[in-house]
Design goal:
The protein has helices at residues 4-7, 9-17, 22-33, 36-58, 63-73, 96-125, 138-152, 158-165, 191-207, 269-276, 360-369, 459-467, 479-495, and strands at residues 133-134, 173-174, 187-189, 209-221, 224-235, 239-245, 251-258, 278-287, 290-298, 304-311, 317-324, 327-340, 377-378, 381-388, 396-402, 407-414, 416-417, 425-427, 432-435, 440-447, 449-455, 473-474. The chain is built from 13 helices and 22 strands. Strands 2, 3, 4, 5, 6, 7, 8, 9, 10, 11 and 12 form an eleven-stranded antiparallel beta sheet that branches. Strands 13, 14, 15, 16, 18, 19, 20, 21 and 22 form a nine-stranded mixed beta sheet that branches. A two-stranded parallel ribbon has the order 1-17. The chain is α+β, with helices and mostly antiparallel strands. The protein is rod-shaped, with a radius of gyration of 43 Å.
Length: 496
Amino acid sequence: MSGPCDELAELRSGLVDGALSPQDRERVITHLLGCAECRADVAELRAVRDLLGRSARSTPAPTPLSDRLVSIAGDASARPWTKAFDGGSPLALPSERHRARVRALLGVIAVGAVATALGITGWFAAPVGSLAAVADPADEAQAEFGAAAAELSVTGASLSALMLLDSLPEATRDAADVDRPPARGRDEVGEAASLDLLERALAAGRTTTVDGRQAVLARVEEHRVVAAQVGIDTRSRQGTLVSVFAPSGSVLASSFAPAEVAASGGPSPVDLIAHTYALSATSGVEVAGRTASVVEATDRAGHVAKRWWVDAATGVLLWQESYDDDGLSTAAGFTSVEVVPYAAVPAARTSTRFLTAGLASASAARLTSSGWDCSDEVAGLDLLQVSTDTPTNPRSVHAVYGDGASTVSVLQRHGRLSGAPSGAAWDDGMEVWRHKGAVRWATWQSGDTVYTVTTDGSTKLLRQAVAAFPHEGPVRTTTLGRVREGWSRIFADLKG
């Protein structure tokens, strides 16, 4: 029984006892006409009533006892016994509807207990710590960036100096007293001559021995430019020793960068520059006591992006400067220098990359289909190289974008960023851990991947590059997801 049947349970008892009002009696009878179950219930109640009546007649209570019970009951003694169990009485019997609710509640409790047991089992069976911890990706990212930028841009030894300077703020001072060379020379030369000058600078950086002091400048804040003195000792085809000096003149730190050999079939930095910028040059400028020509790269909006001062006699890169919307971004150049004639020595061997520049686009497409972010362009810069930590099933991917003047390196590592990287502060606007320095970088967690973007370009370029990649936050496994993983593991073990 359910619905109206439950509601009429007490009235059916009253009907049998003849204790209903005319309205209730009419209501019950109308229902009984269409409900066989309730008619059967009324028949059972009448049988019980008749049985009780016969028992009462066959064994009447003693008169003194009857009188005593009547006196105790008072006015209620005249009330039919079935009314004693009306819903308003504390002695009321539970209705069929109430009993159904109790049964349903007990069923829900039983199902909940089983579900809880299954959930606890799945929770503890789930794998713990499936993502490897990534403690501080900045060092690896900068090493990858340094190797790529030296190969894919015309930088000379200044890049190594800028990167080393980032970790030594005590070496810096105000840049106001640094004498920068003139931006233009006396005589104009054509675009073809500009390309030749850059080609000479690129070749001289790999084959010429140079020893001298450089001034390195970098804008580390919106309107603050700092400078430092570094020693540069470049040995032909061997590498460069960079030493950073304190303002007092003592050596704070030194670093050796092996010579890089361009990957076979890779893009030429000079070709990249010529493809992106309009070039012009002037001659007759003096830098560190040597005569030089100035090559100027102008972007499509007519803004100067970079200048190189190239030694007229040897092609050695004597000075270079990068610019952004706020003016000077970085600069590095010799204040004193000695150039040693070229001497042939065995070429230094370099590590082989798994994916070469010539296959960058095809490799990027394959990696993208596997869940990595490797687009053909980032922040207006073309994809130049893609490399991985292993030939198959990589855990990290390194992509390099550039135009010959600026380089953006993107390192992706599967894992969980375990804390704030050293030398970085949280940037609410970019939603990354950001390092402000001569070489700028940012790192953050998105899903199951840690991204680190490094560039020798402007802060604007860094922002554009960071915005090109997802920012979904870390993976947060829900309770249901963990339980599901646990039972999947249990079933897999049973099948195995």
